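TL;DR need structure tokens for one chain.
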Amino acid sequence: MTQTPQQNILSFDDPRSANALFGPQNANLRRIAELDGVRISSRGASVTIEGKEAAVKNAVNLLGQLYSLLQAGHVLHPRDIAYAHGMLRREPGLNLAQFFAEAVFVVSPRRSITPKTLSQRDYVAALREKDMVFGVGPAGTGKTYLAVAVALSLLLAKRVKRIILTRPAVEAGERLGFLPGDLAQKINPYLRPLYDALHDMLDFERVNEMLAAGIIEVAPLAFMRGRTLNDSYIILDEAQNTTPEQMKMFLTRLGYGSKAAITGDITQIDLPAGANRETPHSGLVHALSLLGGVEGIRIVHFHEEDVIRHPLVGRIVKAYEHHK
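>> reply
TL;DR here they are.
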């Protein structure tokens, strides 16, 4: 069924907001035209959109909602256009202004975090409400970052007493002995992404104070064995690199008053092959197959549309998935 060409003219009352919407030398309009496959021209505070009926309708919706965000006091960054476009494609009836008004939450006096996609919104809600959440999807979707953010917000609100961040040091299996320093210094590079997330949300001195006091603990997964963790927010990162035995060990550490977030990408399993040259089964894949229907557990899946790094990252992820 072919769609007839359509033309639509939008006029905006506030020239300042319109200029911010159009972007420097109409850069934002060109981006929207590229995303929706339409032609957009501007004159004063008005734009003319031409193209297929459905595409024009999508562009009109996106422009109108971005304008409402600017009117509400939000600053429009170039990457926000792609985020908004992706959200409206997946849920055309979404009210972006209401979404962002409800989704912003304060992590600390230094930072407030806003989920950038619908999946991120669902993920944050699950992290707050459920005792155990699995965040599964490609790199750059904010799985670990948002888990750390929610953990910090609950810690500062005194709803948990400490945060424990852990991940398997699988890549270090053969090379650990060649790294300089003691054990703590050897494993530190593999825990670096967790430190980076902490330092992005809290002052460097505050993070060091919490680490020294044991309020925040960053440790490899092997250090979790034999412990029962009460009143804690526990985050297991890179969970695809656990074995089923390690995953069971971690999941059974959960104590009273605690919550757990498990993040991973099942397309990036780096478990080393055993003596029989077979790669062990991933503990994350095994857990997802067993725990999907368990009460109190939520599994949130992310997709390439949720990648919030450089736009090229999303296209790279999509290309690899298409090849697979």
